[in-house]
Specification:
The protein is an alpha+beta fold. The protein is built from four helices and eight strands; from the N terminus they run E-E-H-H-H-H-E-E-E-E-E-E. It is elongated, with a radius of gyration of 18 Å.
Amino acid sequence: MNIDEIPELIHGRYWQDMPVGFTFRTAGRTITETDLVNFISLTGATEPMFYDERFARDHGYAGRLVPGMQTFCYAEGLVIQTGSIHGTGLAHLHCEIDIKAPVYVGDTISVVVEVTEQRAASKGDRGVITSRNTVHNQRQEIVMSYQPVRLTKGRP
């Protein structure tokens, strides 16, 4: 049997299958000390707020802060892990991010994704999907919201 004839277990949704109002939630992910250390080391985000707990507390925070860019990256990872764009996502075209509250080492985040716009692309069998992605912590507080615009495959 040709491997291409075996169906994939995970297959993303085509743009036509993501109507305005379509909403789903990701799994959660706890951001650990190791996650923070690795992220700031890899990105060079060596801001004292991220590696010096006393500095963060002296500036009004409850502990070691997680960079907003790390929260965004982990949120996007959680969305991708749902399989919603597996094999159908073509490009991340644009995004606006609004950081609402701090995320700390030990917080668990998850994402609620709601499609807010859907349209056919100008050429090809593709569509453009805009969503409102709301990132919550373990207390169901909104810590970030962002609006990605994605280019997605259409049905064959």
